[in-house]
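Quick note —
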Amino acid sequence: MDQDPRFQIAWRVPGGGERTTYVSRQVPTFGPDCRDLDVTVERDGDDVWHVWVDPEYDLTVESASAIVSVDLEHADALYLNGYNSKTDSWERSPRAGMRGLWGTPGFVADHWALDAQGDYRFAEQDPRPGRQHGEGYGYVRKGRAVTLFGECRPDTGLTSIYEDLSTGSVTLTKEGPVRRLAAGERVELLTLVVTTGTLTDTVARFMSLMGASRRPALPIVGFTSWYRHYEDIDEPTLERDLVGVADVLLAQPLEDVLPVFAVDYGYARAGDWLEPDQRRFPRGMGALATSVRASGLVPGIWIAPFVCEKNSRTYANHPDWLLRDAAGRPVKVGSRWGGTYALDTRNDEVREYVRSVLGVVTSDWGYGLLKLDGLFAAAMLPHDGMNRGQLMADALDLLRSAVPEGTPLDFCGVPVMSAIGRCEYCRVCCDVGLDWDGRPHERLLGRERVSTWNALRDIQGRSHLCDVAFLADPGVYFLRRDVAFTHSQRTRLVSADALLSGALVTSDDMGAWDQRQCSIFRNALETFVQRNRERGVTQVAVPGEVEVDTSSEPVAESQDAQDTTERDADECEAESVAQRAKAEETQVCDDVSVTREVPVPGLDVTVIDRPLMAAIEAGGIEVPKELEVPKELSEGDEPEEKDDSVAEGESGEEAKAESESADDAEVAGEPQAINESAEDAGAQDDEGEKAEETRPAGVDDPTVLAPPMDDETAQGETEVYVMTPDDIEAACAETVDEGTTEA
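Predicted structure written out below.
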């Protein structure tokens, strides 16, 4: 790689004429009137370049670019960070293309404001192979070796990155100051880093140059209302959910985690956050927060502070609060609720309103975790003398200053570069859906669309940021059976959340989980806590944190497991999870815990957390013969109704195609009853011992994601999740680039 990038500055003279100044090692400075701009490039060590200007007269800088030569031709992968926290971001082939909204009818994109969340309105969109783009930073990888490139000062302007496979280069283009620069005013336009090493080392170097560090916070475990109820929530519904959530969570060891019960959208209209729906929440939102705290959990709440819906009082009563384009039209940022519009975060009244909302929610209502969404709305277009990067930094600082010191914030729908160092948690993926990848027409809805498959790859792709920039928020996992997932897909999702993130959250009715679901959750929680401890996440004091007493025994006594399946739903919800868990302990294989890290000799463990492959890539791996599971679940005796691609040895794309062509068989029917007798538990343990005996010498312990099932439960849910280092290496060698084009 050429360690001497080339630079170019686009600027305007007072009369409006456009100029471009070029700077390189071969030709120090050239271009029309280049001396008037007076560009200086300062090299700092081996990997940092500072680009300064000191103009001779007043002028405007449009952008500053750096062209960096990289070996795209021989690279194994190219990663370009997506603009929004919901923009797809994972390693791709350098020969891939980004479809974005290409192929989506313009009137559809306009009507639904599909181009609002991403960079469609300001970054060049080129769907050709080898012309990918991203924002802020990226890297190329060849085996273990990583070359990371990025711009280190996003608060002074956001940077788009464009790949050019034909020239073997990437171009980083940073927006210039919106204001006019005065004569003799020395301004740094660009701070470029190009550094090599492992992914862990290069990301750490980048964060250091940014002057950013992760804000201390505990990993989150708990519940959010959105992905089951969506906006159809009320106080009785959430109080019922709270009983089940508290029952499950408080039966677990909760050291070093923050147990959360979060209320999502539906309690008020967007923009009218301090006016809850009185029919749904007659006692107000503070009463619910009090109930959550009394249950031993931390109450959380969802707010989109920089937007309002068209049906809100804010939209009707404060038209001057709305951000407007050059034609004076309100800037639309979403299509929900009759249309969603951006507020002008530079308006003094808007800023005071945001402070008031967050102050009331935290200090008066008592919520201890704020999930703040739709934050990209603050940076829709430059205005008030600020570019988008400056506007975004200013708006996020406003949020930080509006809450009591130490209040944890979870940013969502935010430019990732701006979020670093300003929040405890940050979403790293798109929203998951109630199916795997949506319907075919939904795949034309842009890079931020709802897709569980994309979310899974985003969690993997951005895993290098977790615990370095913030704790990663991966959305939610599902253990319930009324979603159109195969069992393999559900397990891959919860495993990714447990192994690579800082939040293990669901929207399931946790009180309705059966023993098997509770076992999977316990394994995931144990893994989640251990992995976060290994990554150095330490316990911190959180304002309003509730001391959780798990020493007392639950009041409700567990009944015989044979009677459990015959109870009505209400009685099942009231059953003590702790007692059920205790009764099931003999069914869990202690010697093959999911928490054991699988060593991967010869692979770059900094590229991706390799134990994750044992979970999220299980669908694409065929179990080796020598590691076959007990005869009852072997390939020859498998139930005819299969939903797990592991048993069939499908590739990841084949498994995905199968899930698109037909719903998971278990979704349509009731789950099979689980045989919980002691005899069956002992038999399962014996089978585990037999499987252990067949493991050849030198083969590492496998990673098992859930306890074994009996024959009856196995119908339709083939539970074979065994991975060895060789399997993981094979999975890593397979490149999955669904939705892109190859040259």
